From TrEMBL:
This is Protein of uncharacterized function (DUF2846). Keywords: Signal. The keyword Signal applies. Residues 1-20 form the signal peptide.
């Protein structure tokens, strides 16, 4: 019995040491360099971007039909396919009050998207408010060349919005 009492602590120490790991050094990137995708024939495409000239500060939370798309930083862009139909687009600066998540579901601009259509929307934010501005494709392409693809958040759009069946 005394041998078992001596062996058990040793086995437990060995098991704990085996479970320990060297630590995964995770690096996180806010942006990557990929470009804007093309609209598919059966879907529309929304492209949102912010100028790098805006003050850095807070991100702007974007939602489509009340569902989270991204927290867009200055100098970033994000695109998402959408079903051809009317969509409610909302932009709210991050964390300006406790109810900003509710605001993502209540306020916004209505936009009717056609199949195969790409719509470019520039976000203007002063840190307290955010405005959406639809931009013509030629101007948007020029301005998008100065931005990077947003990569630090995951969209939570349902298949009914993105047509990803």
């Amino acid at each position: 019995m005394s041998n078992i009492k001596r062996i058990i602590p040793g086995l437990l120490s060995l098991a704990l040491a085996a479970c320990a790991h060297q630590g995964n050094h995770i690096s996180w990137q806010d942006f990557n360099q990929s470009g804007v995708q093309e609209a598919q024939a059966q879907q529309g495409l929304l492209v949102f971007y912010r100028s790098g000239e805006e003050k850095m500060g807070s991100a702007v939370n974007l939602s489509i039909d009340g569902q989270y798309l991204s927290s867009l930083l200055a100098g970033g862009h994000i695109s998402t396919p959408v079903c051809p139909s009317a969509h409610q687009i909302t932009a709210v600066p991050t964390g300006k009050d406790q109810a900003y998540l509710n605001k993502l579901k209540q306020h916004g601009s209505s936009l009717n998207i056609q199949a195969g259509q790409t719509v470019y929307i520039k976000i203007h934010s002063d840190g307290n408010n955010a405005q959406l501005q639809q931009i013509d494709p030629q101007t948007a392409q020029t301005e998008l060349a100065q931005t990077r693809t947003q990569a630090h958040t995951l969209a939570r759009l349902s298949p009914s919005i993105s047509c990803a069946h």
